[in-house]
Amino acid sequence: MKPTKDSEHALVDVLDVLMREGAMIQADVLVTVADVPLVGINLRAAVAGLTTMREYGLFENWDIEKRGIDEDRRRELGRRPDPGLPQERAESGASSDE
Length: 98
Description:
Blueprint: H1 10-21, E1 23-33, E2 36-47, H2 50-55, H3 60-77, H4 87-97
Antiparallel strand pairs: 1-2
């Protein structure tokens, strides 16, 4: 009996772990011509889902601002408020309309 691998779900599993756990990518690139270094690039990137990023304190202000904009749009269209929106933002948004 040979082991089998379900390749259909491999990408989904990788993306699931990446969004849930996150990954830090760091790369140093050095472009040289004839052994003469011309350009050096130091790259750092954090890749994760928004929930994971907020747990580490990244993009928290952007998230609150974006949810506030969405909340204002919902209010204009008569939809119910987003339960994930912090209360102080919801209250300050309501008082700014008055």
